[in-house]
Hints:
Oligomer: heterodimer
Shape of chain B: globular
Helix content of chain B: over 70%
Strand content of chain B: under 5%
Distance between the termini of chain B: 17 Å
Largest sheet of chain B: none
Structural class of chain A: alpha/beta
Strand order of the largest sheet of chain A: 2-1-3-6-7
Number of helices of chain A: 14
Distance between the termini of chain A: 82 Å
Order of helices and strands of chain A: HHHHEHEHEHHEEHHHHEHEEEH
Shape of chain A: globular
Structural class of chain B: mainly alpha
Number of helices of chain B: 19
Radius of gyration of chain B: 23 Å
Largest sheet of chain A: 5 strands, parallel
Amino acid sequence: MRNPRLQAVLLLTLTFAALWGMLAWDPIRHLRGIFVNPTLEDAKVSSLFTDPNTQEVSDGQHPLESLRKLESNWCKVPKRARYILTGNSQTFTVLLSPSEARSTKADRTYPDLLLERLNAAGANIHGYRLSAPNISYMEVLWYLNYLLVHPCLIPGEFVIQLNFEEFRKTGVREEMQELLEDPDFASAIKQDARSNAPYASMFQQAIDQYESRIAKQKGSQTSSTSKTGFAEARGPGSVLETKVRLALDGLSLFRSRGQLKGELLDFLYFARVNLLDITPTTKRSIGPGQLTTSLSSLERIGELSRRNGVRLVFFNAPQNPKTSLYRTAADREQYHEIISQLAGKFAQGYFDFENSIPGPLWGVWIDGPDPIHFGRAAHHLFADLMFEQGVILGMK
Amino acid sequence: MQFNSYSYLLLLLVSVLLFWNLPVRLRHTYVVILSILFYASWNVYFLSIPMIMCVIVFCSSSVIREGGFAGRRALWAGIGAIVAILGFFKYGHFVAENLSTLTTWLGLEPFPRAWRLALPLGISFYSFEAISYLLDTRQGRVKSLSFRDLFLFIMFWPHLIAGPIVRTRELIPQLKFDKLFETRFIFSGLDRLLLGLVQKNVIANTIGGWVDEGFLPKAAMLNSTIDNWTLAVGFGIQIYFDFAAYTNMAIGAAQMIGITLPENFRFPYHAANPADFWSRWHMTLSRWIRDYAFFPLNAGLQHKKLRLYVSLVAIMGVVGLWHGAGWGFVLWGFMHGIYLVSYRAFENWRGEQTPSPLSLRIAWRLITLCAVFAAWVPFRAASLEQAMTMLKSMFVGFSFGFSFSMNFYLMALIWCVWIALEPAVNKLVTLMGEPDGPGVFRTFSGYLLRPCSYAILLLLFMVFDDRDTQFIYFQF
């Protein structure tokens, strides 16, 4: 082809055609397939029981809507009859053990089963699961701050799942930042962000991220100021970008980019597991920074609970006996010492369930025995155990 | 309008198509309008500042061209006015804050703190362009004075916000826009543009999330030695890919309308020594400093080593301050000044003519790499106190442990390997992507390899799309 203009147009056309083809064919899903055994992947139950009255059904993706709904429900319920249980994906995942088969009925996880047992025993109690995958204790504190500024949401009991893994998580995920839309919460959290606590700067970072995002969406003229003194000025370009994005979001292939990212991250995760042998069960210690931040968040949760008359309960989550997460015996000892000290200082109840689920009941997933997720029978067993031990308001 | 935004990319495509269909006589005005609209898309009010600078430079230049004492006076008046505008917006608050601290410390009435003004985007860059125009006029390098050319020299949108800092002789002769359309303008422009998009969205933004977390003031005080070294390397990777991405996108956009902008990076982390680093990192700033500050200030001082060294450290301190109004930036500049002086002094002591043994060359490479990464700590840290704590943990008070997700350490390692392989990969890609390269690749590259590569790069850009991050150098 001699005409350079036509060559350029052809190049662009071919590029967009190739992009369209890739979005439609989804090469990342195929790449992911290299590392994933579909039989093992089936072990993760996808049809779970959902109830927006007892669960934060978005699992941390859109908590504001869930909490607003809960607020309207709970205003009729006395404070002493309501409790909130928070934890990581263990609380909302059923990972079948090798001896379990898929069921046609929706599976329930232990928070649902526990509530069911309590009410079956005539407790007339209202429970709510407020969980998110890899939830950090800073995020639990973030949630608690939200609950406390809404009288209808203040629970009689706040049950926190403690987990060695979660002590390594810090920060507040972007999706939870939407709670800042609530002015009372925003004011409470800003006050906390001004404190000297180790978690405070991360709260401030979350606030800045949220405000910056909102300013961009609204195309407002000024927002955050960086350390160099540059006050970000946002003008017509930002408004235009918002409009272009909205228009592009009308295309289903464009919208699929979020899913593609998930698949790509999944692929990278499995590549890490398969090629480098770094799995979730690879033993690690908790870094000093993470430990201090998590501890300070839990201490603040303790203080706030005490001040607001909320019964605080900790339980040490079950761990798969086949895959200990502690790198050294000293790590285990230190972890247990820390959580029992913490419980002694702030909690009205503390339960150690670390070795409560027998090995055969745990799930096996793509990268081997899962350290924190268990099967159907284990969820029933664990709910029974929590009921028998009187974890919720001391009721059995 | 960010370079890595959908609106910019769509408008760029439309603007380029329109540009090549316009008669040559209208192209200059068209690019001026595009540049004005681009800057106004950030903030309409701040548009007045580069425009005022253009007027100042034009008025000064017309007197400078007459030569003599008046010309000299006009030169200094012009530079003074530009520095005053830059100082007012960029350093007013910093100076007032420090004076306030000082007066309080001396027990005097506290100096009133200034309003924290919004910093006009790209002011440091276009101020330097303006100064270089004045100096080039004085040195007779600007052949004819034209306000249209001067305006576009400063306001040309690809380099307006964060460089590359161009010279009059590089850009002004190209502003005729009289080139005939060639496919390579689009090919090479898109190559750079898409590479930049991926460098920014996939590499810089991804690692930047962890770096931001690690440098949070209170959390950073608890980091271990391993954490702090990884953070220093992580930020080194982030800022390199962030800035290189911006430069690639600027060069790419300019190339699409037939304009060649100078390069800013040449594999900086492959530097053989501290001096070599500055010939590879932000090259257009380095040569600006060398030609307009270092050489004129040190002319005839070649034998007065001590004065040269002091001058070098001081100039690097100013380079630090140019980046931002904060002591961390100044410390970063001083650190680089000290590295340069140490290297020069060592080479003088050893005798510059003697060839270096391999072991020494390797040692200098390693020392340079560690020193450059360590210097990023004060550059990025929120305060001097935080920077000193982190540096202390890196060099003196060792502690071990991993505070972040394993993915961060892993990612830092992977990008280090990528940086190590970059020159080789670059050579290979250039060979395969060259439209006028080996015949076997020509058709293959034009109609198969290129569209597929572009589609993959666009897909990655879309997948890692993050509207919340901006280019680091936009702050400067």
